[in-house]
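Subject: sequence -> structure tokens, single chain

Hey, anyone have a minute? Need the predicted structure for the following. Not urgent.
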Amino acid sequence: MSAAPLRNDCFALPPGVNWTPLNEALERLAARLHPVVESAGSVALADAVGRVLAADAVAPRAHPPSSNSAVDGYAFLGPISDVPARLPLVDGRSAAGVPYDGAVAAGEAIRILTGAVMPAGTDTVALDEDSELVDGCLLLRGTLKAGANRRKAGEDIQVGDAIVAAGTRLNATHIAVLASVGIGAVEVYRPLRVGVLSTGDEVKPVGAAVSDHQIYDANRPMLHALVARLGYQVVDLGHAMDRAEDVQAALDRGAEQCDLVLTSGGISAGDEDHVSKVLKRDGEISNWRIALKPGRPLALAMYHQTPVVGLPGNPVAAWVCALRFGAPAMSVLAGAGWFEPTSFMVPAAFSKRKKPGRSEFLRARMVQGSAEAFGSEGSGRVTGLAWSDGLVELEEGADQIEPGTPVRYIPYTSFGL
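Reply:
Had a minute. Here:
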């Protein structure tokens, strides 16, 4: 199964569009993406965790395969309406994995254990604690409906059911369902290859000697970790200095080796913003000015048929944009479809006066059922990233937040982290 490439103009904005509201930008991006990975064939179930299904998984066997008892007790043909009822016990029993090989006549009962196949002639089970044995007979003093305490064959899964849909990223619960019907291998997509590139003369890799006018590169390690945690294959494109030839060489490698490239820095219109210049010269670029704080500049481009997401250079803004735009975009490209992160309305544990005009994301964490915001909104305060366990999203309008005001909290786990 192969996938068509994205169109070169898929990120173009309509004429006259300037500032784009967050929700509108997300809707536009979702509508223009599709999977770019092909099927990798079948992999063993043991190796399938984290992979994306390329085809529906269809059940070759019912679950449960036979009617069985949900409890330890005694099986018979129900219902029991006239009580007390006395049912002679059949010699033998039905146990899980060792079924009774005979039939039970109407009006008789047999010992049965949890998970055991219901013997022929039975459809109802009385619990041990509701049963009394008297002179080789089962004595029942309470009524029972037919089918009580019995699991029907196929009541969970029927043969031919599509039990896990194509596009699902498999986790441990999916593995359990697939294994329950004997599926030992599944067809999956090839893992998405995501290139990560940092730029800037002031940026140096961790471990290098630095001067006071230089900073260590936080973005590339951060984005490496994010991409890997989301289950994609990281391609390290390194660091490019603020020279067009360096940026072009890095993007050329990305176009050759990757399905998507994430860059940080160099995407505005300044003298040294060479990422946007190279993308404009040799590709198709659209600078989406999104009404968003932090992270207004977001470059979406096609470079030699490879999509490029140009993130802001500031680590906090890069983090917010990588989560809100990058994570669902990568999910689509990888075959798993666009997703909106699960959010919760919770009481605020902070005060804030919000101005109108932009959506805002605050680094936040849950404390005793309320969302606490990081003490500084400055996007240069990287300590807030490790301090937080999610984001509070404030919509575009003006607002006055006080302790107890309901706010929208998005845990990082909602993005797949």
